[in-house]
Amino acid sequence: MRVPLSWLREFVDVAPEATPEDVLASLVRVGFEEEDVHGFELKGPIVVGEVLEFVEEPQSNGKTIRWCQVDVGEDSPRGVVCGAGNFFPGDKVVVTLPGSVLPGPFPIAARKTYGHVSDGMIASAKELGLGQEHSGILRLVELGIDAPAGTDAIALLGLDDVAVEINVTPDRGYALSLRGVAREYSHATGAAFRDPGAGHADAAARTPSGFSIVVDDRLPIRGRVGATEFVARIVRDVDATRPTPAWMIARLSLAGIRSLGVLIDITNYVMLELGQPIHGYDLDALTGGITVRRAEPGEKLETLDGQVRTLHPEDLLITDESGPIGLAGVMGGGPTEMGDATRNVLIEAATFDTVSIARTARRHKLPSEASRRFERGVDPLVPFVAAERVAELMVQLAGGTLDTELGGSLSATYERAAIALPRGFVSGLIGVDYTDEQIAAALRLVGCDVDTSVEPWAVVPPSWRPDVTDKWTLAEEVARIEGYDLIPSVLPVPPSGRGLTTAQQGRRRVSNALAAAGYVETPSFPFTTEEQNDLHGSPSGEHLPSVKMANPLDGQAPFLRRSLIPALLQAAHRNVARGLTDLAVFETGAVFLPEPGVTYGTDTVPPLGVRPDAATLVALDASIPPQRRHVAVLLTGPIVDKQPGQPAVTAGLADAIDAVRIIAGAAGVEIGLAQTTRAALHPGRAGVVTVGATEVGYVGELLPAVSEAADLPGRVVVAELDLDLLLTLGGDRVVAASLSGFPAATQDVSLVVDASLPAGDVRAALVDGAGGLLESLRLVDDYRGQGLPDGSKSLTFALRFRAPDRTLTAAEASEARLAGVAVAAERFGATLRE
């Protein structure tokens, strides 16, 4: 809302020395947000000039210019070149002298043009910032102004005014008016307020008669009719061609509304002044009386913007006997628009339902200054005052005559129910010890009727504050008026024993461990295609059920994902396309694993604003497929960059297995690996990850065809684990192992086993047999070839033994090693390699 200060001073005492910044600071104190300060960006000397004479001089380019002699109040006239042809000798015009600056900025200087030195410029309304009309210069006689030559035109036209702009939140629609802002400035400063809406209690003057107005709302929304009051006044014999006064044009321009002719300017002016949208009809274009009703199916209306709109049965219309003539509270119709030929005007000031207007404006994508106010709620007691104010200005500025009859359809006497406000509630809610006198005074200041003789207090909000509806909003008003700076800043103290859950701590450990190892987290949307779900979300690529969304963000990816790998492939593709080829990325997120034969989703959605009961929540939970939180990694490109003496090392399967071990260590589990096959993974380079006998995920290298389909060059290795399952198997906590101060004993063992036997099974047998002295065991060699029986291989393991309380002897270490070999021999027929 832009508020011209000269206009604001009409309704509230603003100190003469107050700057726009001072006014903004005062409005901020009562809860508004400052936006900007607006002016006409003019700099003098800009004066009134009288055209003494001119000579028309045709030019070679086909244009005719006028070489003018203009009296600007100096000893001698000035010569000015002007290209306009809409003025005559004796006309008073606005002359911008050398040294002045017009909006743009456009500095004015004496310059040679068309064979003359133009000592200034005769300005148009557009060049002065008074409107968009640029067809000719501004003739002061058209504004009803006659001032001596040399008079300061900036002050004369109101161009020295300035407007402050504030942001008005949707709940404070009353502030979309000078009346509302002036009242709030009065609250902030204590300055005297003069209500331009005073007099609306005159019930006798509101008695309708004469012009027929009927409200026939057959389709009330939420049980509320679309119009509760419709006031009409008639002004006859207006002259629509009369100029709008300069002061009104200046104020409208500062408020962000362009001048459209005196009749429309008056309706806009009163809307800004009182906050009541007004519409004027060309009375002679009406057929019969006015009926306010809902639209019939198939009805159409041409609105003032020239568009023909197909109406909805919920649209509230203004109609006459010919049909629709306006969208109520949104925009009028073209056939009854006021124009230069209008001689008789019907003035409409109504109270429309906020919900109906908001729905209509959004349905037709037709926001307007009127709908902006109606959908926030306007004062239901001000339509009569607004209609009277418009009629008064049309009589004064357009030469009309006011009809004595008043047309209208009125609701019952306006009343608001009292709000119960318990003593002590405001102080308890806000945290400030207000006295009863402070609370009552603050509420009366904003217009409330406060009865403190009862308990709880009975507080009736004012008609212009539809946002004040309960004791909480009353408390907010007290805090706003008394000052937000009085509210103490107190940091809340969290209750003891609260924090991250065990599962949250585990997920954070895993993410932190991967990040510390050099992986970058790439969160993504959980949407993919059915083909990607089948490829990556099933062990062998068979079709498993996927959940399709009814309203997907992307129609090409409408399914909830069964795997994190497709999203990592997309992230890798985007990075490679931008030149980042060495990637180590990971994601933790939910995957959706619907059970075969189960239908998910629901046709019944509980209403908004109502807490669902327990049975509804259970039904909603059952409509969602099971969700598991997974963790996945992807590596591609060099894991070690090329450098002097060191060739580049490309990420391979071993690096993906290392990532799996990092995840397992953070989750507190020991993993096992065994070969497997998966649809998207390279045969022989795919492994299943287990914890004990439980499968928790997989690791492997993508098939070249899969990598190529994702536009990824070279080798790509991935791993995906069920993080929820890992953390469950890991238990409630991960305890760091104690460090022994005694030296370790290291030994190697080479075992000959069947070539098809997984090395992990042999490792597990050695671990089981070696007992508690075994600290670590690593596979260091897998040999197949000369010196071994056909169909066999030699696996070499490095073992490290350590005791927590003593230094181990070589004999103790050997005994533990042989115990492990014995178990391997028993399970798999393993033999020591000679």
From TrEMBL:
CDD domains named in the record: tRNA_bind_bactPheRS (cd02796)
Molecular function terms from GO: ATP binding; magnesium ion binding; phenylalanine-tRNA ligase activity; tRNA binding
Domain of life: Bacteria
TRNA-binding domain segment(s): 40-154
Cofactor(s) required for function per UniProt: Mg(2+)
SUPFAM superfamilies: Anticodon-binding domain of PheRS (SSF54991), Class II aaRS and biotin synthetases (SSF55681), Nucleic acid-binding proteins (SSF50249), PheT/TilS domain (SSF56037), Putative DNA-binding domain (SSF46955)
Family statement drawn from the similarity comment of this UniProt entry: Belongs to the phenylalanyl-tRNA synthetase beta subunit family. Type 1 subfamily.
Designated name of the protein: Phenylalanine--tRNA ligase beta subunit
Organism of origin: Microbacterium hatanonis
